[in-house]
Design a protein that fits this description.
Blueprint (H helix, E strand, L loop, with lengths): L2 H11 L6 H10 L4 H6 L1 H7 L8 H13 L3 E4 L18 E6 L6 E5 L6 H16 L4 E3 L5 H12 L3 E4 L13 H9 L3 E4 L9 H13 L1 E6 L8 H10 L4 E3 L4 H8 L3 E2 L34
Parallel strand pairs: 3-4, 3-7, 4-5, 5-6, 7-8, 8-9
Antiparallel strand pairs: 1-2, 2-6
Helix pairs in contact: 6-7, 9-10
Length: 297
């Protein structure tokens, strides 16, 4: 993929598209290029590409800023794009990231920002154990369980990945900036599907949680309230057929267990759980939820 096509795909990723799944399939199969879509009014109508709400210059400035900050871009269909994201019904066309992009699925550990001390310790130990089994630890970089998981992975010398609910120019929470720098320095990654300057918005975290689940081969929820965002990650895992575990003892986790999640209490789980299997795009039904169709079935 040449530079001109990469820039066109970046521009297309920032546009609203009503038939995004069809567009992504045709781009990946080589039926069309992003350049053709942007130049053709007929193709724009065919795929439902809506007028840009940002100027061409604004998009070019965003690209320039990403390059200036030494950020990477992973485009759908290129070797640097995480294959786990193909399990999403409409995977992001481009990811921006700092650090080293993970190319295999990892272990996702998520939970409440206001977790109690015991849950934080459990998250840390679980991540350290996963790291010692050479697994990448994926989480959202938030306070509480997420931060403990990232620190546990760093302690074990493992890679860890932060999936932001904001742009790389507004990493959230700001108090975790030193942690994010440590992660990048340790060959981990901080990544985003959002524009560089997008602040953290409520709806963005739901989208972010689906990406966390898709980057994992197993998801652990350590602590959650009934309204916790971690439950969104859990439901996304179920939709994608990814094994889901929950630590009993908080209302959100207890509800997930009644819905079909597997209860666990021991952070030193069997080695087989952390061995990366061949990536499967076939989804199962767990807890009675009907799985969504993957990008490729």
């Amino acid at each position: 993929m040449d530079t001109e096509e990469q820039h066109a795909r970046f521009h297309l990723a920032r546009r609203r598209v009503t038939k995004r799944r069809e567009l992504l399939e045709d781009l990946l199969c080589g039926k069309i290029t992003a350049r053709e879509v942007l130049k053709s009014a007929l193709l724009a109508v065919r795929y439902g590409v809506l007028p840009a709400h940002r100027s061409l210059r604004a998009l070019e400035k965003e690209l320039e800023r990403l390059y200036k900050e030494e950020c990477g871009l992973a485009f759908l269909g290129t070797p640097t794009y995480p294959p786990g994201l193909l399990r999403l019904p409409t995977p992001p066309l481009v990811l921006s990231y700092r650090g080293t992009m993970p190319l295999s699925t990892g272990v996702a550990i998520v939970g409440s920002r206001a977790a109690h001390r015991g849950a934080m310790i459990h998250s840390y130990n679980l991540a350290a154990h996963a790291g010692r089994r050479l697994s990448t630890v994926v989480s959202g970089g938030a306070y509480g369980v997420d931060g403990a998981a990232h620190r546990g992975a760093l302690y074990s010398g493992a890679n860890t990945v932060v999936v932001l609910g904001s742009g790389l120019g507004h990493p959230y929470p700001e108090r975790h900036l030193p942690l994010f720098e440590d992660i990048v320095a340790a060959q981990g990654a901080v990544l985003s599907t959002f524009p560089w300057d997008q602040p953290p918005l409520r709806g963005a975290f739901i989208s972010r949680n689906r990406v966390i689940a898709a980057l994992a081969r197993v998801v652990f929820v350590v602590a959650a309230s009934l309204s916790s965002g971690a439950r969104h990650t859990a439901h996304a895992a179920t939709d994608l057929g990814i094994p889901l575990y929950a630590l009993p003892g908080t209302p959100g986790c207890d509800r997930l267990i009644t819905e079909g999640a597997r209860a666990y209490t021991n952070p030193t789980l069997p080695k087989a759980l952390f061995n990366p299997p061949a990536l499967s795009l076939q989804k199962s039904t767990q807890g009675g939820r009907s799985p969504r169709r993957a990008f490729f079935d």
